[in-house]
């Protein structure tokens, strides 16, 4: 239970992520996650394979490893889909908000165009480059928010699993 609780805590520690995070902000969460994994795996194997007769243990171990790997692959695919959908969601919301503040957007594009003007490009290229820069900044922030959402979802699902641990049949 300590391992699963540590996983919940470590995933929740990732939720305030920003684009400015570096290794210093990730170190503690990753350390908690790594330590928790050590505490989580042994009980999972014991709960799963503890009641299996010795003559069937090899087959059961193979099935256990297969389902564990399959679950990991499905989890990664689902997280990828969630990240993609949440990125699109946040990007769209930011775009909607920008419509309500056109003066701020125009000011950003004008100031960025001045920066690109120093490189000697024409006005159309400057505006296009400024618009692309704004789009890239929006995408970066949308992806960061999507990661935060995904970490929150993972921590919530792990918390539900944590609450279900006492209900597991531990008898062999």
TrEMBL record:
The chain crosses the membrane at residues 146-168. It is a multi-pass membrane protein. Its main location: membrane. It comes from the Bacteria. Keywords: Membrane, Transmembrane, Transmembrane helix, Transport. InterPro entries: MFS_trans_sf (IPR036259). One of its GO terms (cellular component) is membrane. The keyword Disulfide bond does not apply. This is Multidrug resistance protein B.
């Amino acid at each position: 239970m300590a391992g699963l609780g540590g996983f919940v805590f470590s995933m929740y520690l990732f939720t305030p992520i920003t684009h400015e995070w570096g290794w210093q902000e990730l170190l503690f969460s990753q350390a908690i996650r790594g330590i928790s994994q050590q505490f989580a795996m042994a009980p999972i194997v014991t709960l799963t394979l503890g009641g299996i007769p010795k003559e069937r243990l090899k087959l059961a171990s193979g099935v256990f490893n297969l389902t564990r790997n399959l679950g990991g692959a499905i989890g990664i695919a689902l997280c990828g889909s969630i990240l993609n959908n949440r990125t699109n969601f946040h990007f769209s919301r930011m775009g909607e908000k920008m419509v309500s503040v056109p003066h701020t957007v125009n000011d950003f594009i004008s100031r960025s165009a001045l920066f690109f003007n120093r490189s000697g490009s024409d006005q159309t290229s400057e505006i296009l480059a400024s618009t692309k820069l704004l789009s890239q900044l929006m995408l970066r922030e949308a992806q960061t928010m999507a990661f935060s959402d995904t970490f929150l979802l993972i921590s919530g699902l792990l918390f539900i699993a944590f609450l279900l641990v006492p209900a597991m049949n531990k008898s062999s």
